[in-house]
């Protein structure tokens, strides 16, 4: 009897420890909610040889999409649209499209948080009249 007790004691202790560790309580493991997409709107008026820079801040790694939503009164014109890094006074261009039309996008990505910028400019010096613009920048 003593041998049987000596053999069962370690197994019983192991079962007690395993059952105390908890198990599946039937619920799902909590997961982080998906990141929320942020839309930033920038607007202004650009004239012949003009340019405007709009800074924005990202809190982590993400894809960045800048879209020229509207250019008026002449939506058929092309302008420059660029994404870059912002140092507090200068937009260091990283990605640029000098032939952006209304509806076009410039897409980039970053693996760090930081200060960034979107820049619109009269790339060819061809604007004959001032153009109102609306740019949306999408990121998480």
Description:
It is a single chain. A hairpin with a 4-residue loop joins strand 4 (79-86) and strand 5. Residues 8-21 have low confidence and may be disordered. The chain is mostly beta strands and 140 residues long. The chain has 1 helix and 8 strands; from the N terminus they run H-E-E-E-E-E-E-E-E.
Topology readout:
Layout: H1 2-20, E1 38-46, E2 51-58, E3 62-72, E4 79-86, E5 91-100, E6 105-110, E7 114-121, E8 131-139
Antiparallel strand pairs: 1-8, 2-7, 3-6, 3-8, 4-5, 4-7
In short:
The protein is mainly β and 140 residues long.
Order of helices and strands: HEEEEEEEE
* Unreliable parts: 8-21
Q: What's the story with the biggest beta sheet?
A: 4 strands, antiparallel
- Count of extended strands: 8
Radius of gyration from the alpha-carbon trace, in angstroms: 29 Å
**What is the arithmetic mean of pLDDT?**
86
Q: Termini, distance in Å?
A: 68 Å
Keywords for this entry:
140 residues, 1 helix, 4-stranded antiparallel beta sheet, mainly beta
């Amino acid at each position: 009897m003593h041998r049987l007790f000596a053999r069962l004691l370690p197994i019983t202790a192991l079962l007690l420890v395993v059952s105390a560790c908890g198990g599946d309580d039937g619920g799902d493991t909590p997961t982080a909610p998906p990141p929320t997409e942020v839309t930033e709107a920038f607007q202004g008026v650009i004239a012949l040889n003009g340019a405007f820079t709009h800074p924005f801040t990202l809190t982590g790694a993400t894809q960045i999409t800048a879209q020229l939503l509207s250019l008026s009164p002449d939506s058929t014109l092309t302008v420059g649209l660029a994404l870059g890094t912002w140092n507090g006074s200068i937009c260091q261009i990283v990605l640029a499209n000098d032939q952006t039309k209304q509806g076009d996008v410039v897409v980039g990505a970053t693996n760090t948080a930081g200060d960034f910028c979107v820049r619109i400019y009269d790339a060819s010096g061809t604007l004959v009249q001032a153009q109102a613009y609306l740019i949306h920048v999408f990121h998480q």
